[in-house]
Design goal:
There is one protein chain. By secondary structure, the protein is mainly alpha-helical. About 60% of the residues lie in helices and about 10% in strands. The protein has one domain (about 35-170). It has helices at about 5, 35-65, 70-95, 100-105, 120-135, 145, 155-160, 165-170; strands at about 15-20, 20-25, 110-115, 160-165. A hairpin with a 2-residue loop joins strand 1 and strand 2 (about 20-25). It is elongated.
Amino acid sequence: MSYAAESGRAAVARPVIADHVVVDPAAPVYVGLVTRAIAFALDAALVNIVAILTAAVVMLTFSIVNIPEELRTVAVAAGGALYLLWVVGYFVTFWATTGQTPGSRVMHIRVRPTKGERLLPRRALLRFVGLTLAAIPFFAGFLMILVDDRRRGLQDRIARTVVVEESAES
């Protein structure tokens, strides 16, 4: 049994010196590009599976109901708009409520503001816009993750967020 447990005092996390480098166990561990890409791929798979199943149900319904071609065109346009709302809503809702999408939860990572407060929905939406902008020029906005000391991409800089390991948050 440790001294803290025996004496009834709470253990205090103290910096550890390893190879002449001070390591603070309470410091957040910032997440790199590969872990974030895997989490995003899991989220993209989930988002698209739901969208494909929904589209299949709608198409099966249209196959047995006789509707004019103009209405089908409107339905396709509405479906595209709903898909966009679904994708944006998925990420913004999860980031603003728990800081984790299902893919992030699997990878044990969390999005949080740089100052540690709660991520507001408007900042989560701003992060999604930044994510889109980061992907537009051949994914160049994500390359910042490789060189930034806190591993922030364009989306993180725009929304003032960081992505940390879940164990560092607990």
